[in-house]
Design brief:
The chain is mainly β. It has 2 helices and 40 strands. The chain has 2 domains: about 50-315, 6 Propeller (Neuraminidase), CATH 2.120.10; about 325-445, TolB, C-terminal domain (Neuraminidase, 6 Propeller).
């Protein structure tokens, strides 16, 4: 199995930390010169089935299908010069249902590679920023997120808008002609032809994030992953309602293989499999480790892997990206901090320059770390539904503010002497993702932040907010640099999308 070079896995659209990688004595080449760390295992169904069936994990009522063992084939696909992955906070690869072709999402567009051909090509019309591509059941179309749920032909052309915009939690194109996708408030289903309105099939709890939806065979139950205040689980629920059934505790990014009757899921950066009894909605026997060091998809609870109907497995290797922050002077000299390597993102220096706050993913548990630059001590803050947004220091350098899954802004002492407290209550209609605090005013009494239901709110009181412009309206309008004496910020996110915000009191 090829091993990918170490590389940053930052929050989506968030610059990576300058870093010195664990057990690395030489600097890595520029990302666009590195090989694409993709391993393709042909006829993986035979391999996986051999592991499972040999351990008696199949239910007696559903015998394993006969699969002719085939040799394992592996190869490395390289990225073209000057091209890098984009939108890495969501899966960047997708495999056609028959395993004959795959796509990977890059800054130049979606590249399509047929296994019968030597070279990959860009799908015309996919050059704009997009994320989370998936194939249609017949392999002739691709759905993705780009200012809404869209689809296009594998041959290129204009895309068709079929679903509303939002922060994606995974997409799956079902054989019944519907598309399942996760949004901030739960899991939705929409016809792939876009002729009907989306319907919500699973409601997320206020402090919960749902992802990786998939209809189980029979079309009566939906499989998905749940993250509630840092607790990861693979669950299933009847479309008719009722209680959820926990299938795997501590797992995420799950996928069911109808050909073999097994459930795949990720724990930290390793892929596991276990037999699943669909009648009882329960796993059978113990799970088996299949592949190690699959790269996680940033903060989304998903991972960079895909499986075809016959069990062909496509994945990015490299596992979780462990790194340490470094100081860089004006001459470019680097000095790593005396900090254990970890999955750190979004470093923020305190106003007094004495401490560094960072988001951290430790074994699937999201949280924040504060590093004392003077005493060289590390503190991991206790969490209460944190979503690892960018941390914001208070002007006195004593506390940090961050968003929670419930839509609140929380504040906590940087020395972890007290648990987090609500700095600002969730707004009406506020859901996931967590709000993103931006900066304090000079007097330290007010904070700017971004939320999904309203692009920016400017609270004059920590418990009360006043709305800025609604998100959709902000997407459509442009504003001057100042309006009535108040600053206006224009946030460009590529692909022709921009967000204009006027701060109000």
């Amino acid at each position: 199995m090829p091993v990918a070079p170490a590389g940053a896995t930052p929050l989506e659209d968030e610059p990576a930390i300058g870093q010195a990688h664990e057990k690395s004595e030489t600097s890595a080449p520029p990302f666009w010169r590195r090989p694409l760390p993709v391993a393709l295992v042909s006829a993986c169904a035979a391999l996986l089935l051999g592991v499972f069936a040999g351990r008696g994990l199949r239910p007696a009522s559903a015998p394993a299908p006969d699969v002719e063992p085939k040799p394992i084939v592996r190869f490395v696909q390289t990225l073209p010069p000057g091209v890098a992955f984009r939108s890495t906070g969501r899966p960047v690869i997708a495999l056609s249902p028959d395993g004959s072709s795959f796509v990977f999402n890059t800054t130049a567009g979606l590249f399509l590679r047929k296994l019968s051909e030597l070279n990959a090509r860009v799908i015309p019309g996919t050059e704009q920023t997009l994320s989370n591509p998936v194939f249609s059941p017949d392999g002739q179309s691709i759905a993705f997120l780009a200012s809404g749920l869209r689809k296009t032909s594998v041959n290129g052309g204009a895309s068709l808008l079929i679903g509303p915009p939002g922060i994606p939690g995974g997409i799956n194109w079902e054989t019944d002609g519907s598309i399942l996708y996760g949004l901030a408030d739960g899991i939705w289903r929409v016809p792939a032809d876009g002729r009907s309105k989306p319907e919500q099939i699973v409601q997320a709890e206020p402090d919960e994030q749902l992802s990786a939806p998939q209809l189980l065979p029979g079309g009566k139950h939906v499989l998905f992953s749940s993250n509630r205040a840092g607790t990861l689980q693979v669950e299933a629920r009847s479309l008719a309602g009722g209680e959820r059934r926990v299938l795997v505790a501590s797992g995420r990014s799950a996928c069911y293989l109808p050909a073999t009757g097994h459930l795949l899921f990720v724990v930290e950066s390793d892929l596991f499999g276990v037999a699943l009894d669909l009648d009882r909605l329960a796993t059978i026997g113990s799970s088996v480790s299949l592949v190690q060091s699959i790269r996680p998809a940033g903060p989304s609870d998903m991972a960079h892997y895909a499986v075809s109907r016959d069990g062909t497995l496509l994945y990015l290797t490299g596992g979780a990206d462990r790194k340490v922050p470094v100081w860089v002077d004006r001459q470019g000299k680097e000095q790593p901090l005396k900090l254990e390597p970890g999955e750190y993102v979004s470093p923020r220096l305190s106003p007094d320059g004495a401490k560094l706050a960072m988001g951290e993913n430790a074994g699937g548990k999201r949280g924040y770390v504060v590093w004392d630059l003077v005493g060289e001590t590390r503190i991991r803050l206790t969490q209460s539904g944190a979503g690892v947004t960018i941390p914001l220091w208070t002007p006195d350098s004593l506390r940090i503010v961050y968003g929670s899954f419930g839509g609140h802004l929380l504040v906590q002492p940087a020395n972890n002497t007290r648990p987090p407290e609500v700095f600002m209550n969730a707004m009406e209609g506020q859901r996931n993702p967590p709000p993103l605090p931006l900066f304090f005013t000079a007097d330290g009494r007010k904070v700017f932040f971004v939320a999904q239901t309203a692009s920016v709110r400017f609270p004059s009181d920590p418990r009360k907010t006043r709305p800025g412009c609604p998100y959709q309206r902000c997407l459509r309008r442009s504003s001057p640099q100042t309006a009535n004496g108040w600053p206006t910020i224009r946030l460009n996110r590529g692909g022709g999308r921009s967000l204009s915000v006027r701060f109000q009191t």
